[in-house]
Task: inverse folding
């Protein structure tokens, strides 16, 4: 018995029973030993075929098992006659009605009957335990069972079969067929679903089984064994699901003829899903999912084996097909195969053809195939091998692979090997990504003929990405990334010519990007979108005449061996040459594209063995730093033309001359020299020629010469400040390199960013804050500052005559109006003057926007102010009043393209006013203190948040005079022409910025500064009062012309990390001329309380200012 419970049956028949017994023992030992053998196939050549041959031997033995011995260990008892008997007519028996007890020898004479018809049953066939449902066994002749149980089932318990049929040729030559045509479900708790056999040494008896229905069995679902010495064909067609508890779904073995199995349905079995063994053609066609130890196995000893399957398979072995003398065809038409060993395995004496249209997962192999002639694989779907190769294919004469899915493997992604000395070819065409964690991505080797590899996907491998060899011609075409962590990205070898084309992607290997070994006339073509690079060599060859045509990018060393070689760097291509470019003496590097020793961004030297010619369209890129430059050393001749492009990597501190090329003989000259990109690291590039050397001279890098004509004053000031420090000998901090890496318009915004204009925003904000406080302190017509003899300080009406036109229309006052006027009129009875106090509180605030100046480079500035003031006034005489006030608040401002600032504010001030009839004069002094914080962000070299904190002081004074008269319009309007002069002095201390985050590379120190802005006002104030029974309401307005004598807002700064780099940055400046407008309303009550609200606006061509204040006052 084997591990699956099958009796061992010899592959070929010997002349004696002893020979068969020896065969059984030998095959049993092979099968049992190899079922647990995890070894992978051997390597290339003869060892590979030995491994495949050994693998085939144990599988032949395993597939050669049969049930003839084991099946009879437990013989079922013959079926007993059911309640309804069977009728016989000639050689045909018919059973109908109630056959629940089973149908067997007791129901008809099986020696005389060759056909049994079972139909029109009224119940299930469910015999006693150990009794088969239907049993038809003859010692010779044909057996036919036609069983239609579509409405009923066969249910068997005990060690018995659902249907059992057999015929034995016992002593004379006999032919015939064991035929079962069955419809209906079968359940066997201890035996087979359907069991058929032919046995004996004489006769040629076929087996035909057609079954439709579900089969559930303890042993095989269907078992067909043709054991006779001249056994016939086996044909099985099953439609319906099959379940086997300990054995196979379908088991068919013919030891002298062929086997055909057709299955439509799912199979769940303990051993094989479908097992087919024959000496001639063996065909399995299955549709449905299979779960078993071995999914489908087919073996033909002397002819072809073919398997076609559609559906999922989950098994230790997925699909296996072998042929001892013919070919193997496997077609997996859809679904996924998951296997602990091989998803698909094929072995044939002739050819192997495998078609796959699903995903394959194999613990050892996705596809493993070997043939003595050729192997052809066409796979669409992903293939995964956890411990082995995705595809491992070996043929004597030819191997053809077409893969249209991704492959992931521990060993080879695709291994294709043709080992015969008279072989024809190996071709691999792969579309999809391939990953190999421990071997090569694609390995294609032919001992004879030619090898062709086409790869259209990405390949990532531990060894060579793509490895192609042949004795004849080798061609390799790659489109996609190809990488190797230890070997070559692409390796191609041939006894004839080698042609490698890299159409696209990045080709990079730890050893080499492309390695062409041997060959006669070899060509490497690199496409425009391709990149070839390598750890030791980008491109390396050995013998042969090698030509490289590069239209893409090559990075690294190049070694083209000892033949007649050429490297053609075509137009628009790039050769980032390594330290060595060895073309062989007398061979040429032609550059019509770009040549960059060590690549752009790295200074290095390239030694070229051979000659160098640069065409008029070529470019020679030279990286330079303050101490060295790229250099091309040519062993032969150098023919010069085209351009030199200079790439400074850091600022040059002084004029420097470099040798950038030398040759045995130099002819011609470069047409021009320019900078690769506009920077400020160096300037004034120029070439000179001394002997066979080419010299490059550069002047020190400065910012100012790199500025475009549209640079503004601030940008030029910053650039000049930095240049001045460098010219003075200061070393350039490394953090300034990103700034010097720019030039032209690209330099402008960074210069604005580092200028620190934010600091200038504190000045105008402070002036605005002092202006608003002075306005609150000195308002000449605020309640209580007009006339001390009235409780509310009314300023009087338009006329002194009580009967005058106090209101429009000239009407007489009413009694109430006369009483109110009498209380406030200047014509009231004389009162004794009494010194008195006024106390008040006010809230004030506003915002201002000032436009920047494009020529200066200042940016628009916006500021906001909010504060609260409280004060007291005291009348020293009827015409003189003085007072003081204290205020607190805060400011904020922002500079476009700059930063922000804020401050806490304290103010204190005093005023005095004297009235002389209708004239007045007011004077005031004030002081302001601020705790200021500024913030800005610089993003030139990272993100630097820079902050400064400091305290500043301000002083302000104002002197105003005017004369009030009453205009006889609309009942009398007070008009007051006035003039005022005001100054504000802002003392800024010296202070520095600190880096809150990032670095202080561009942090500034600001110089102390005292700036005074004097302004004059000439304007007209107007007022109009309206009396009521309990007080007076007054409307006021103002229109004035303002002149600022010092509107500039500039500040000096120095970079902390570059001493001597000082400059002046201009902030947004006020207009010299502006218009001032005011509107207010005031309400005074007879009880001494008053309140007022005021709006103020100041406008110019660059400024828009809006402010307001509210006052609450009490007089007593």
Result:
């Amino acid at each position: 018995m084997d591990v699956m419970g099958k009796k061992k049956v010899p592959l070929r028949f010997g002349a004696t029973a002893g020979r068969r017994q020896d065969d059984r023992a030998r095959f049993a030992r092979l099968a049992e030993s190899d079922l647990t053998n995890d070894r992978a196939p051997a390597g290339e050549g003869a060892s590979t075929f030995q491994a495949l041959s050994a693998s085939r031997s144990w599988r032949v033995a395993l597939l050669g098992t049969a049930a003839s011995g084991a099946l009879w260990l437990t013989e079922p008892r013959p079926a007993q006659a059911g309640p309804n008997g069977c009728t016989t007519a000639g050689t045909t028996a018919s059973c109908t009605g109630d056959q629940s007890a089973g149908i067997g020898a007791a129901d008809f004479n099986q020696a005389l009957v060759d056909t049994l018809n079972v139909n029109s049953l009224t119940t299930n066939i469910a015999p006693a335990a150990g009794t088969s449902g239907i049993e038809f066994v003859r010692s010779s002749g044909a057996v036919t069972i036609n069983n239609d149980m579509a409405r009923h089932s066969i249910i068997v318990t005990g060690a018995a079969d659902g249907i059992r049929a057999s015929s034995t040729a016992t002593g004379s030559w006999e032919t015939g067929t064991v035929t079962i045509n069955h419809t209906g479900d079968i359940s066997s708790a201890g035996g087979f679903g359907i069991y058929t056999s032919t046995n004996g040494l004489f006769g040629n008896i076929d087996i035909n089984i057609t079954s439709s229905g579900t089969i559930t069995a303890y042993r095989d679902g269907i078992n067909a064994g043709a054991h006779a010495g001249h056994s016939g064909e086996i044909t099985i067609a099953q439609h319906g699901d099959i379940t086997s508890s300990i054995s196979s779904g379908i088991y068919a073995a013919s030891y002298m003829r062929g086997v055909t199995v057709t299955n439509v349905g799912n199979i769940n079995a303990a051993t094989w899903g479908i097992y087919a063994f024959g000496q001639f053609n063996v065909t399995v066609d299955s549709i449905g999912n299979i779960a078993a130890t071995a999914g489908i196995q087919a073996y033909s000893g002397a002819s072809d084996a073919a398997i076609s399957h559609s559906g999922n398979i989950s098994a230790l072995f997925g699909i296996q097909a072998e042929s001892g003398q013919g070919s193997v065809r496997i077609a997996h038409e859809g679904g996924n195969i998951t296997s602990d060993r091989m998803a698909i395995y094929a072995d044939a004496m002739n050819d192997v053809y495998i078609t796959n249209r699903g995903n394959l997962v194999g613990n050892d192999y996705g596809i493993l195939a070997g043939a003595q002639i050729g192997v052809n694989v066409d796979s669409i779907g992903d293939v995964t091998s956890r411990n082995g190769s995705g595809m491992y294919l070996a043929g004597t004469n030819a191997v053809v692979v077409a893969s249209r899915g991704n492959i992931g493997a521990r060993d080879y992604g695709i291994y294709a090997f043709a080992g015969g000395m008279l072989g024809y070819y190996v071709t691999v065409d792969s579309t999809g990504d391939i990953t190999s964690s421990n071997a090569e991505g694609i390995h294609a080797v032919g001992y004879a003929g030619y090898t062709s590899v086409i790869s259209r996907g990405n390949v990532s491998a531990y060894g060579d990405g793509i490895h192609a060899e042949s004795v004849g011609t080798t061609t390799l075409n790659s489109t996609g990334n190809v990488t190797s962590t230890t070997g070559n990205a692409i390796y191609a070898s041939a006894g004839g010519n080698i042609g490698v084309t890299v159409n696209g992607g990045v080709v990079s290997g730890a050893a080499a990007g492309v390695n062409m070994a041997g060959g006669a006339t070899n060509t490497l073509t690199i496409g425009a979108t391709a990149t070839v690079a390598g750890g030791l060599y980008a491109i390396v060859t050995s013998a042969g005449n090698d030509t490289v045509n590069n239209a893409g990018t090559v990075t690294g060393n190049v070694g083209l061996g000892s033949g007649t070689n050429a490297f053609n760097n075509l137009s628009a291509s790039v050769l980032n040459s390594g330290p060595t470019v060895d073309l062989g003496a007398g061979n040429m590097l032609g550059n019509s594209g770009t040549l960059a020793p060590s690549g752009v961004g790295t200074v290095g030297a390239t030694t070229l063995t051979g000659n160098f010619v640069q065409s008029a369209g070529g470019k020679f890129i030279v990286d330079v730093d303050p101490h060295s430059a790229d250099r091309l050393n040519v062993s032969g001749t150098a023919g010069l033309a085209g351009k030199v492009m200079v790439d400074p990597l850091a600022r040059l501190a002084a004029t420097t001359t470099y040798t950038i090329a030398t040759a045995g003989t130099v002819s011609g000259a470069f047409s021009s020299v320019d900078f690769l990109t506009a920077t400020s690291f160096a300037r004034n590039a120029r070439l000179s020629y001394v002997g066979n050397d080419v010299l490059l001279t550069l002047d020190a890098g400065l910012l100012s010469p790199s500025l475009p004509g549209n640079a503004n004053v601030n940008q030029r000031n910053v650039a000049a400040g930095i240049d001045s420090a460098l010219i003075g000998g200061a070393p350039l901090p490394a953090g300034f390199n990103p700034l010097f890496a720019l030039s032209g318009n690209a330099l402008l915004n960074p210069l604005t960013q580092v200028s620190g204009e934010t600091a200038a925003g504190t000045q105008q904000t402070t002036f605005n804050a002092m202006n608003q406080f002075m306005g609150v302190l000195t308002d000449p017509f605020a309640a209580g500052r007009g006339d001390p003899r009235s409780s509310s300080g009314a300023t009087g009406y338009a006329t002194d005559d009580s009967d005058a036109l106090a209101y429009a229309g000239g009407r007489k006052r009413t009694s109430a109006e006369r009483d109110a006027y009498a209380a406030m009129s200047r014509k009231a009875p004389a009162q004794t003057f009494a010194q008195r106090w006024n106390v008040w509180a006010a809230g004030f605030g506003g915002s201002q926007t000032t436009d920047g100046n494009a020529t200066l480079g200042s940016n628009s500035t916006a500021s906001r102010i909010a504060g609260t003031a409280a004060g007291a006034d005291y009348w020293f005489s009827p015409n003189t009043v003085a007072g003081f006030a204290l205020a607190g608040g805060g400011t904020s401002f922002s500079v476009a393209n700059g930063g922000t600032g804020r401050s806490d504010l304290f103010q204190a001030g005093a005023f005095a006013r004297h009235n002389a009839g209708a004239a007045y004069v007011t004077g005031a002094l004030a002081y302001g203190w601020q705790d200021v914080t500024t913030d800005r962000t610089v993003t030139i070299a990272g993100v630097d948040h820079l902050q400064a904190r400091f305290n500043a002081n301000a002083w302000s004074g104002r002197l105003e005079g005017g004369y009030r008269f009453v205009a006889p319009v609309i009942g009398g309007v007070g008009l007051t022409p006035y003039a005022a002069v005001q100054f504000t002095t802002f003392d800024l201390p010296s202070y520095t910025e600190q880096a809150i985050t990032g670095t202080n590379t561009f942090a500034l120190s600001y110089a102390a500064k005292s700036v005074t802005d004097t302004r004059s006002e000439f304007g007209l104030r107007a007022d109009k009062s309206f009396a009521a029974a309990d007080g007076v309401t007054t409307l006021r307005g103002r229109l004035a012309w303002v002149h600022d004598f010092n509107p500039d807002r500039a500040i000096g700064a120095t970079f902390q990390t570059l001493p001597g780099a000082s400059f002046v940055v201009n902030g947004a400046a006020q207009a010299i001329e502006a218009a001032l407008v005011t509107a207010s309303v005031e309400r005074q009550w007879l009880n001494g309380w008053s309140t007022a609200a005021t709006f103020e606006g100041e406008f110019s061509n660059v400024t828009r200012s809006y402010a307001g204040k509210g006052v609450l006052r009490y007089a007593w």
User: Anything to note?
Assistant: Residues 1-81, 787-831 have pLDDT under 50 and may be disordered. The first strand starts at residue 86 and ends at 89.
